[in-house]
Design goal:
- The protein is built from three helices and two strands.
- With 91 residues, it is of the alpha+beta class.
- The protein has one domain.
- A two-stranded antiparallel sheet has the order 1-2.
- Bound molecules: zinc ion.
- The site of zinc ion has 8 residues, from strand 2 and helix 3.
């Protein structure tokens, strides 16, 4: 399977900076279970509305929230499995 072009967006410095901005804004707190996680490798910068390749949604701070990995996996798995086969594309 070919990677869609937006996968590369996650590898940009712009995304890394934006991700950190969101974590800071949310005070490193999972917006679902309120867990505070200082280790950003255990946090996910999540798109509230799945961007599905839409650049505007992808880079929109208002469409981003901090989730811990556990919440991210449980929430998104149920919601997105129907349309996405590949795991791990949301972070
Ligand atoms: Zn959580």
């Amino acid at each position: 399977m070919n990677s869609p072009p937006w996968r590369a967006w996650y590898k940009t410095a712009r995304w890394r900076a934006l991700r950190l901005t969101i974590f800071l804004r949310d005070l490193f707190t999972c917006q679902k279970c309120r867990l505070i996680e200082g280790d950003t490798s255990k946090l996910v910068c999540d798109h509230i509305i799945p961007h599905r390749g839409d650049e505007r949604l992808f880079w929109d701070e208002n469409n981003l929230q901090t989730l811990c990995k556990r919440c991210h996996d449980t929430v998104k798995q149920a919601a997105e499995q129907a349309s996405l086969r590949t795991r791990g594309v949301w972070h």
